[in-house]
Design a protein that fits this description.
By secondary structure, this protein is mainly beta. 11% of the residues lie in helices and 38% in strands. It is built from 18 helices and 104 strands. An eight-stranded mixed β-sheet has the order 55-54-57-58-52-59-78-74, with no helix packed on it. A six-stranded mixed β-sheet has the order 34-33-36-40-41-42, sandwiched between helices. Helix 3 links the parallel strand 29 and strand 30. Helix 12 crosses helix 13, helix 12 crosses helix 14 and helix 16 packs parallel to helix 17. It is globular and about 130 Å long. Keywords: Signal.
Length: 1526
C-alpha cells in the first residue's frame, strides 16, 4: 500500500501544472470517459482553458498515471490551432482499480464492475518542459514478410452481473445476525442473484455469429456460504467440470464447450449458495469490415480484405499505445493481436480544470467537502483557525480534489484513505470534519438521486465514516448538510456553544433515557445506564434517568423542558430506527414539541440500531437534531446499523471513561479516537467500534466549560430591601463549573467604593443565595446609589470565565427620588389646565416631556428640571376633544420614568385605556389586535397530501402530508407498503396517538399505520374508529394500493355514522388516492379523491365552534380599594345581550346606551373582563375606550407555578416558593401562610405558619417543603398567603398549586433464579440439597423489597400439594431499595424430582408473572456439577480446558487469558456441548506470537447459546496457568 501511495503522489505531482519558469498557466484538465471507444477533443473545447499558444509536442494524456498515446490532427505540424483536434483510445472504468480497497485482489468479487462509477478519468496536461513521444503512428508494413490472408478472427464478449449487492459473509457464527465489516470484505460487491441447489444458475449462449463449434468461457463464481461447497458445470447431461469453492471465495473458472452439444450451461451443487460476477466468452467468427473489436491469439503477419473507405482501423494490442493501420490496395496489413474498426469518434464536449494544490502535512484540522459547499466550509475553517475556535491549522479540500490528487480523478474512497494516511505517524491527534451528505455506496452506484446526494462519500457498507479514522490517530465527524445555509446555521450553533460567556448549570447535567421492550430487557438497559452514570457522577456531574413505563414499541417522552433549561448530554439505551427512538423524544425542528434551546445544545449518544444512519433519503432524527436552527444538538453519535446490547454497553463505557477523565477537557473526537485504539476481535464489538458514527464537529469540547470552577452571579437576582437603619442585599450565585473547596471573597462596592467584603467558605456545587446586611450611611440619603458586587477579586480561583463575576444595580434612590404624583398612570383628567406635579431629589438635571403619541416624534411640552425637591408645571391642553398624552422623564442616556394619561373634558376622574398603545397591553382569548383593529382569530384546518395510489413503485415514491402547513410525513416510507394511514387531532388541532403500538416507522410518532396485519385478533381500522372521542378530528389516506372491498360492515357503519358518504368511497376504483377527514360529532367532513395514480390533494375548513367565548382582559390599572363606576365604549355592537362585563366574578350586561349601572363601593379583586358570546358574532366589535375609578392597596403574591412533578412512591419531593409584595404600599399587619395536600378534593394534610409584616417590594423565601408519598395517585399541593384576607389590592395571586403525580408502579419486577449458581434447565440433575438463589429487581428504586415479596413453594411429586418453603432455610437476605437477594438452602432434597414454584411481586403487588415461575430439578446422588479441568498445567507446548458434566445442549464458551498486569493477551470463542467440550491453547497471543514464560490467569465463561445477554451466563471459571516452554 505504501508503494501505491508513493507512486500516486509522484505521478500527480509530475503531471500537475507546468514548470515554474513558465509565465503562462495551463491547468491540467479532467477528461471523463464513459464508454470504450475512440474519443475526440477539439481545439475549441481546449481554448477556454488554454488560451495561450499550444505546441503539439508538449500535449500529454494520462490514465491512472500512465501516458496514453494521442493522434493529433493539426493544419500546422507545430501548433495546435483552430479546427485541430486530438484522438485517443479511451476505456470506461471497469473496477479493476477497486482491488486496493480489499485485503487482496483475490478478495474482490467483481473486477469487471466498478463500485462507484462507469466513468473513467483521463488527465490532459500541457508540459512545456517535456516533449511527449506518445503519439499514435502508422503501423509499419514490411511487404517482404509472409502476410497470410486472414478471413476469420475471434470476438470476446462479457456479461457483467450487477443485479444484487452482496455485503459478504456475516461476521458472527449465526446467519440471522446481520453483522458486517464496514471495510470491503472478501466476496463483497456486485453480482447476480443468489443460486441454490433448488435454483441453479443457467447460462445460455445463443445468437452468436460463430465460425466454428468451440466456445471458450471464463466464469467468475462467488461463494456466499460459510462452509465449503462443491459445484458442477453441466452441459446437457454431462458434467464438464467440478469446482470446490471455499467460504467467500471468488474464483475464475475457464473451459471450452462444443456448441453442437448444447448452448446452455447449468451450474449447481448440493446445499449450494453462490452467485456469478461475470461471464467472459470468445469464439471464432468471420472477419467483417464493420465497427467492432476483433482479436487473435498470436501476433502473426496477416492481410485482411478491406472494402470500406469510411472505416478506420487501429491496432490496440497495446491499449496505451495504439497504432493506425492504413489501407493498401483495399487490404490491411498488420501483426497486431487486437484491432478496432471505427467510423465516428465519441466527442468530448466538456473538460474540467484540476485544482493545483499540495496537501498540508502539518494541518491538524482537515475539512473535506463538496465544491458546492466550499464557501461555507471556508467560513468554518476561518472560525476553527481563530483563537476562539481553537487556533487549529486548517485545510479545506473537496472530494474532487482528493479524487484528482490521490486516485487520478476516479471517484473512490481510496482517495480519502490515502489523504487521511499521509501523516498517520504524526503524534498529535488530527480532527477530520466531513461537510456534505453521503449515500449508501451501492445505492449511489445505481440511483441518480442518491449519486447526487453523495457529496462526500462514506467508507463502505454498512455505512460509517469512522473506519476512515481507525488506526491512524484521527478523530472524525460529519455535518450532513446539503446547502451552505445549513452549514452556516450549524457553525452559528458551534460559535454560540463555545463562547466563554455561554455558561449554564445544565452543562453539568446528563439525561439518561432507558428504553427496552419487555421488563427484563428494560431492567438490563437500566442497569447499563446506572453503571455508566457512576462515571460522570464521580466528577461531580448530575445524572437523571427516565425509563419507559410501558412495553409499547414506542413510548413518547417529550424532553423539551429539560433540554430548554439546558443539559450537557443525553444518552439513550434502547431500540431505535433512523427516524425514531423507542423512548421517542421527537424531531427538534417540530414546533409542536416546543424545543427552544438556543445556545444550550446537548450532545446526544444513542445506544441502539440505525439511529446514526443518515445516508438514506429518509429524514434522520439525528440529522434533524444536528441541523435544526438555534435548537437541537451540538453533536449526535449513534450506530448506523444493527447492534447488540453487550457491545453497545462496552463501547459506551469506554467512551464515558475517556470523555470524563482528567480535567474533562477532551474533545468528542479525542475521546472517540481513544476508544478506537482498542483492537477488538469479537465481531460484535469490532463492528460497533466501526459503525458508531459522529455527526457534528469532533473538535467540540463538551465539558470544557466545567473543567474548572466558574462562579457567577445569577442574572437579575440582585435585590435590595430598605430597612430603618440598614440595607439588606440578596443575590444568587451559581457555579457553572467544577466544585472547589477554596474560599473566595465577595466584595460590595457602593458608588465605586469598596465598603464591605465577606469570605465565602462553603463548597459551591450548584447554586446558593447570599444575604448581606450593611448599615445605612447618612451621606447616601440624597444621592443616587450604584451598587456592584464582585466575586473573587483576588483571583484565588482559576476559573473558566471571569467575565461573569460582577453584578450591578444602578440608579437606586433611598427615597422616592423621582416621581410624577399627578396625573397618575392611566389617569383621566377633566380640566384643560393640567398641573404636572412631582418630586426630584436627583442631582442630575432631568427632562420632563409630553407628546400626543407614544413614539414621541412630536413633543408638545418640555421642561428641564434642575432643582431638587417638589416641582410643579402647568400644561394647557388645546385639545377640543378627548386626547391621550404620553409623558416621560429622561436624562441624556436613558428614560427614567414614563406613563400616560387622558384628557376628557368635564369627565369624572379615574383610569382609562383608549389608544393602540394601550390596547396592545390587553390580554385576549380568541381575538387579536391587528394594527388598529380587533379581529377574531378563526380556527383553520388545512390538509394537503401528495398521495401514492395503485401500481406505484416504492423506489419511485416520495409522498408527504401537511396539516396546517406543518409537514408531518415525507422523505421516507411509512411501512408497510399498501396500507391505510391515519392522524388524530384533538379539539385544539393537536395530534395524539390512539393506538401507540401502531406508530408508523420513520414518520413522526402520531402517524398511525392501520395495516390489517398489525393487530392480532382485531381490525386496526375498526378499533381506531371505535376509540375516537367526540370532537376529535380523523384524517385517513392510502399509501400505495389500498383495497376497500374487504372492509367489514361494521367499518362502513362506523364511517357512515361519522358523516362520510360511503357510497362514494365504495365506488372508488381499486387503488385510487383519497383524503377523508371528519370531526366526530360535528359533521365537518372533507372528502377528496385523486384523479391519477399519484395525486396532490388538499382542502381547507374554517372552523367557528357553536359555543365560543371571546374575552378581553386589560392590565390591572391600579390596585383599587373601591370602584364607583366602570365604563366601556364599543362600536358596532350587534346585540347588547351578547356582551357582558365581569367584575369580581359578577356579570353586568351591556345596556343600549353603552354605559353600566353604577357599582356599589367595593374593591376590585380580579381583573375586569369583557366577554363576547354567540355563534352569530362574525367579527370582533371595536373597543374604543375602557375605564375605571379606584384607590391603591398593598399586594401580596406567591410565586405561581404550573409545574407537574412526577415522583415515584417513596421518592422525596422538595419544593421552594417565594412570597413578595409587588405594591408600593406596605402591609403592616402580620399574616400567615397556609399549605394543604389534597387528593380527590379531600384535604389529607394542612398546616398554617405565621408571616411577619411586609414592607414595599419586600420578599421572603419559604422553607423547603419536603414530602415522600407512600401511595400512588395525583395530589395537589396548595399554598395560600394571607388566607384571612387582610386588606390587600389583589387576592388572585395569593395562592398557587403544584400538581404531583406519584406514579403507579405498573411495571412488573424481574426475577432471576439460579440453582448452585447457574440457570438450571428443567429436569437437570443436581446433587442433594442444592442452593436456590433468587434475585428480584423493581423499577422503583426508592422503596425496599422485603423477603415477604417472595413466596417459595415446594412439592416432591407431581400430584402432591404445594407446601411453603421453610423460612429457616433462608440463609442469606439482602434487602435494598429496588433489589432483593435471597438464598434458600435446601435440607430435605435428597432424591427423586423436586417441583419448585416461586411467586414474586413488588411492594404494590405487581407480580413478575400472572403464573408462578416453575421448574423441576432431579436430585441425583451421582450428579456432579459442571467441572473444568486444565491439563497440562504448567503448559509446555499446549494445554486444553476440558468441560465436564455439561447438559445436552449447546453453550457459547469464551476463554480469556490475562497476564499478571491484567492485560488480556488472548481470547477464543467457540460452541461447546456434552461431546465437543475441549478448548485448546498453544501459548501464543492474539497476533500468533509466542508469549514469554510466566504466570497467567484465565477466565472461562459459558453462556446459553439461545441468548447473548449477560443474564444467561451459566458458569464462570477462573484460575491460574503457568507457561514453561522448554
Amino acid at each position: 500500500m505504501k508503494k501505491i501511495i508513493f507512486l500516486s503522489l509522484l505521478l500527480v505531482s509530475k503531471i500537475g501544472i507546468c514548470v515554474a519558469q513558465t509565465t503562462t498557466y495551463y491547468p491540467s484538465l479532467s477528461v471523463s470517459v464513459a464508454q470504450t471507444a475512440v474519443h475526440r477533443i477539439h481545439y475549441e473545447t481546449l481554448q477556454s482553458f488554454w488560451p495561450y499558444l499550444i505546441e503539439n509536442q508538449y500535449i500529454h494524456l494520462y490514465r491512472q498515471g500512465k501516458e496514453v498515446a494521442l493522434e493529433i490532427h493539426s493544419k500546422n505540424d507545430s501548433y495546435f490551432t483552430s479546427g485541430d483536434y486530438l484522438l485517443f483510445w479511451g476505456k470506461s472504468n471497469d473496477g479493476t482499480t477497486d482491488s486496493s480497497l480489499y485485503e487482496s485482489a483475490q478478495a474482490q468479487a467483481n473486477p469487471s464492475y466498478s463500485l462507484f462509477s462507469y466513468t473513467a478519468t483521463y488527465v490532459l496536461t500541457y508540459e512545456p518542459s517535456q516533449k511527449s513521444v506518445f503519439r499514435i503512428r502508422t503501423e509499419r508494413q514490411n511487404l517482404e514478410d509472409n502476410y497470410r490472408l486472414c478471413l476469420t478472427a475471434r470476438k470476446e464478449q462479457i456479461q457483467v452481473f450487477s443485479d444484487n449487492y452482496f455485503a459478504g459473509l456475516v461476521l458472527t457464527p449465526f446467519d440471522n445476525e446481520k453483522i458486517w465489516d464496514s471495510n470491503y470484505q472478501k466476496a463483497e460487491g456486485w453480482m447476480s442473484k443468489s443460486f441454490t441447489e433448488n435454483s441453479p444458475a443457467r447460462l445460455i449462449f445463443s445468437a452468436l455469429d460463430t465460425e466454428g463449434d468451440t466456445l471458450k468461457f471464463n466464469i467468475r463464481l462467488v461463494s456466499q456460504k460459510r462452509t465449503t461447497q462443491v459445484l458442477e458445470i453441466i452441459q446437457g447431461s454431462q458434467v464438464i467440470s467440478t469446482i470446490e469453492l471455499q467460504p467467500a471465495e471468488c474464483k475464475d473458472i475457464s473451459g471450452n464447450i462444443l456448441l453442437s452439444k448444447g448452448k446452455e450451461l447449468e451450474i449447481k451443487g448440493k446445499a449450494s449458495l453462490f452467485a456469478i460476477a461475470s461471464v467472459k466468452y470468445d469464439y471464432a467468427c468471420t472477419l467483417e469490415p464493420k465497427e467492432g473489436q476483433y482479436f487473435w491469439k498470436e501476433p502473426l503477419p496477416k492481410k485482411i480484405p478491406m472494402n470500406s473507405q469510411s472505416l478506420k482501423v487501429w491496432n490496440i494490442s497495446n491499449e496505451f499505445f495504439p497504432k493506425n493501420i492504413p489501407q493498401f490496395r483495399d487490404t490491411l496489413f498488420t501483426t497486431g493481436t487486437q484491432m478496432v474498426f471505427w467510423e465516428k469518434p465519441v466527442e468530448i464536449t466538456s473538460l474540467s480544470p484540476i485544482r493545483d494544490w499540495q496537501p498540508d502535512t502539518l494541518a491538524n484540522f482537515l475539512i473535506v467537502t463538496h465544491e458546492n459547499l466550499r464557501e461555507s466550509a471556508q467560513q468554518y475553517a476561518t472560525y476553527r483557525s481563530s483563537q476562539a475556535g481553537g487556533a487549529y491549522r486548517c485545510e479545506v479540500v473537496t472530494s474532487r480534489m482528493l479524487y484528482d490528487y490521490f486516485n487520478h480523478g476516479d471517484k473512490s474512497t481510496l482517495a480519502f484513505q490515502r489523504y487521511f494516511s499521509i501523516s498517520k505517524n504524526q503524534k498529535n491527534p488530527i480532527a477530520i470534519l466531513l461537510i456534505g451528505t453521503g449515500a449508501y455506496p451501492q445505492i449511489a452506484r445505481k440511483s441518480v438521486s442518491a449519486y447526487a446526494r453523495d457529496l462526500v462519500p462514506t467508507n463502505g457498507y454498512p455505512c460509517s465514516d469512522t473506519p476512515f479514522a481507525m488506526g491512524i490517530n484521527r478523530s472524525i465527524g460529519r455535518i450532513p448538510a446539503e446547502t451552505n445555509a445549513e452549514v452556516e446555521a450549524y457553525l452559528k450553533k458551534v460559535i454560540a456553544f463555545e463562547k466563554v460567556e455561554n455558561t449554564y448549570i445544565g452543562r453539568k447535567q446528563l439525561l439518561h433515557l432507558s428504553g427496552g421492550r419487555y421488563g427484563i430487557e428494560q431492567t438490563l438497559f437500566r442497569n447499563y445506564l446506572d453503571s455508566l452514570a457512576n462515571i460522570p457522577q464521580e466528577k461531580g456531574l448530575v445524572v437523571r434517568t427516565i425509563g419507559k413505563q410501558t412495553d409499547a414499541y414506542v413510548e413518547v417522552r417529550n424532553v423539551a423542558e429539560e433540554v430548554n433549561q439546558g443539559i450537557g448530554m443525553i444518552t439513550l439505551f434502547g431500540h431505535s430506527a433512523i427516524g425514531q427512538l423507542d423512548l421517542d423524544i421527537g424531531f427538534a425542528s417540530n414546533p409542536d414539541l416546543g424545543y427552544q434551546n438556543q445556545e444550550k445544545y446537548p450532545f446526544v449518544l444513542v445506544n441502539g440500531c440505525d439511529a446514526g444512519d443518515f445516508f438514506t433519503e429518509k429524514k434522520a432524527l439525528s440529522t434533524d437534531w444536528l441541523l435544526s436552527h438555534d435548537r437541537g444538538a451540538i453533536a449526535f453519535m449513534a450506530h448506523t446499523h444493527l447492534a447488540y446490547p453487550n457491545s453497545l454497553y462496552a463501547f459506551s463505557k469506554s467512551f464515558y471513561q475517556q470523555l470524563f477523565q482528567g480535567e474533562l477537557s477532551q474533545t468528542l473526537g479525542e475521546a472517540h479516537a481513544q476508544v478506537l485504539k482498542h483492537e477488538a476481535t469479537d465481531p460484535y464489538l469490532k463492528t460497533t467500534l466501526q459503525q458508531f458514527t459522529l455527526q457534528g464537529d469532533p473538535a467540540i469540547r463538551l465539558f470544557k466549560a466545567i473543567a474548572l470552577p466558574d462562579i457567577a452571579f445569577v442574572k437579575n437576582s440582585l435585590s435590595i430591601d430598605f430597612q430603618q437603619d440598614s440595607l439588606r442585599i440578596n443575590v444568587s450565585i451559581v457555579n457553572y463549573g467544577k466544585a472547589n473547596q477554596v474560599p473566595f471573597s465577595i466584595h460590595l462596592f457602593v458608588n465605586q467604593q469598596d465598603i464591605f467584603q465577606q469570605l465565602y467558605e462553603k463548597t459551591l456545587v450548584n447554586t446558593d443565595v447570599i444575604s448581606l446586611k450593611i448599615p445605612l450611611n447618612s451621606a447616601w440619603q440624597n444621592d443616587t446609589l450604584n451598587l456592584r458586587l464582585s466575586l473573587d477579586d483576588e483571583g484565588v480561583l482559576k476559573e473558566v470565565n471571569t467575565k461573569n463575576n460582577d453584578i450591578e444595580l444602578r440608579d437606586i434612590h433611598l427615597k422616592k427620588s423621582l416621581a410624577l404624583y399627578y396625573p397618575s398612570n392611566w389617569a383621566i383628567v377633566s380640566s384643560p389646565e393640567i398641573w404636572l406635579e412631582g418630586n426630584k431629589t436627583l442631582l442630575a438635571p432631568v427632562q420632563l416631556q409630553l407628546a400626543d403619541n407614544s413614539d414621541f416624534k412630536s413633543i408638545i411640552f418640555q421642561k428641564t428640571i434642575t432643582k431638587q425637591g417638589v416641582f410643579r408645571y402647568l400644561f394647557k391642553s388645546i385639545a377640543k376633544d378627548t386626547t391621550t398624552y404620553y409623558w416621560r422623564m429622561i436624562t441624556s442616556d436613558s428614560v427614567l420614568l414614563n406613563g400616560t394619561f387622558t384628557y376628557i373634558p368635564n369627565s369624572p376622574l379615574g383610569w382609562i385605556q383608549r389608544t393602540s398603545a394601550h390596547f396592545q397591553t390587553i390580554k385576549t382569548s380568541g381575538m387579536i389586535w391587528d394594527k388598529s383593529t380587533w379581529k377574531l382569530q378563526p380556527d383553520t384546518l388545512k390538509i394537503a397530501l401528495y398521495v401514492p395510489g395503485a401500481d406505484i413503485s416504492q423506489s419511485n415514491y416520495l409522498g408527504w402530508v401537511k396539516v396546517n402547513e406543518q409537514q408531518w410525513m415525507g422523505n421516507g416510507l411509512c411501512y408497510p407498503w399498501s396500507s391505510l394511514n391515519a392522524i388524530t387531532l384533538d379539539a385544539q388541532l393537536k395530534p395524539y396517538l390512539i393506538l401507540p403500538q401502531l406508530s408508523c416507522g420513520n414518520s413522526p410518532y402520531w402517524i398511525q399505520n392501520l395495516n390489517e396485519n398489525l393487530l392480532v385478533g382485531e381490525n386496526p381500522l375498526l378499533t381506531y374508529l371505535q376509540q375516537l372521542k367526540v370532537g376529535d378530528w380523523l384524517i385517513l389516506w392510502p399509501h400505495g394500493r389500498v383495497s376497500t372491498q374487504n372492509w367489514s360492515g361494521e367499518i362502513w357503519t362506523s364511517l357512515q355514522n361519522l358523516g362520510f358518504s360511503i357510497a362514494k368511497i365504495k365506488a372508488l376504483p381499486l387503488g385510487t388516492p383519497f383524503l377523508l377527514a371528519v370531526q366526530k360529532g360535528k359533521q365537518n367532513v372533507i372528502e377528496k379523491f385523486g384523479k391519477s395514480a399519484i395525486s396532490a390533494i388538499s382542502d381547507t375548513l374554517y372552523l367557528l365552534p357553536e359555543t365560543q367565548n371571546w374575552e378581553m382582559t386589560p392590565p390591572q390599572m391600579g390596585a383599587l380599594e373601591d370602584a364607583k363606576q366602570v365604563f366601556t365604549d364599543f362600536q358596532s355592537l350587534e346585540k347588547p345581550s351578547n356582551y357582558e362585563l365581569n367584575i369580581n366574578d359578577a356579570s353586568y350586561t351591556l345596556q343600549e346606551n353603552l354605559t353600566f349601572q353604577p357599582l356599589s363601593t367595593q374593591r376590585l379583586l380580579t381583573p375586569i373582563q369583557v366577554k363576547f358570546r354567540g355563534k352569530q358574532v362574525k367579527q370582533a366589535s371595536q373597543l374604543r375606550r375602557w375605564g375605571v375609578l379606584g384607590k391603591p392597596y398593598a399586594d401580596l403574591a406567591i410565586e405561581a407555578s404550573t409545574d407537574t412533578h412526577e415522583v415515584e412512591i417513596g421518592q422525596t419531593l422538595n419544593i421552594r416558593r417565594y412570597i413578595y409584595n409587588s405594591s408600593d404600599s406596605p402591609l403592616s399587619d402580620t399574616t400567615s401562610l397556609h399549605w394543604q395536600i389534597i387528593q380527590n378534593g379531600e384535604i389529607l394534610e394542612s398546616q398554617q405558619e405565621p408571616l411577619s409584616s411586609f414592607v414595599a417590594h419586600d420578599s421572603i423565601a419559604l422553607p423547603v417543603f419536603s414530602k415522600a408519598f407512600e401511595q400512588a395517585g395525583d395530589y395537589v399541593l396548595r399554598f395560600v398567603v394571607n388566607p384571612s384576607r387582610k386588606h390587600e389590592a389583589n387576592f388572585s395571586n395569593n395562592s398557587t398549586q403544584v400538581l404531583v403525580n406519584v406514579k403507579q408502579d405498573n411495571i412488573a419486577p424481574t426475577m432471576l433464579v439460579q440453582v448452585n449458581g447457574r440457570i438450571a434447565q428443567n429436569f437437570e440433575h443436581f446433587s442433594p440439597n442444592p442452593t436456590l438463589e433468587i434475585q428480584l429487581w423493581d423499577n422503583n428504586r426508592f422503596v425496599f423489597l422485603r423477603k415477604e415479596n417472595v413466596e417459595i413453594l415446594i412439592k416432591h411429586c407431581q400430584a402432591c400439594a404445594w407446601v411453603a418453603g421453610n423460612n429457616s432455610n433462608i440463609t442469606a437476605i439482602t434487602e435494598e431499595k429496588g433489589k432483593l437477594s435471597l438464598t434458600y438452602q435446601a435440607t430435605d432434597w435428597l432424591k427423586d424430582t423436586v417441583w419448585i414454584a416461586i411467586n414474586a411481586s413488588d411492594r404494590v403487588g405487581a407480580k413478575v408473572s400472572t403464573k408462578a415461575y416453575q421448574m423441576q430439578v432431579v436430585i441425583d446422588e451421582k450428579a456432579t456439577p459442571v467441572q473444568l479441568k486444565v491439563l497440562p498445567n504448567p503448559l509446555h507446548t499446549w494445554t486444553r480446558w476440558s468441560i465436564e458434566n455439561l447438559p445436552e445442549h449447546d453453550y457459547w464458551a469464551s476463554c480469556q487469558i490475562f497476564d499478571v498486569s491484567g492485560k488480556k493477551v488472548y481470547e477464543v470463542q467457540q460452541i461447546v456441548n456434552a461431546t465437543e467440550k475441549e478448548i485448546f491453547w498453544d501459548g501464543r497471543n492474539q497476533e500468533g506470537n509466542f508469549l514469554p514464560n510466566a504466570l497467567y490467569f484465565y477466565k472461562l465463561t459459558l453462556q446459553n447459546k439461545e441468548s447473548k445477554d449477560s443474564l444467561s451466563i451459566a458458569d464462570t471459571f477462573t484460575g491460574k496457568i503457568v507457561l514453561e516452554r522448554k
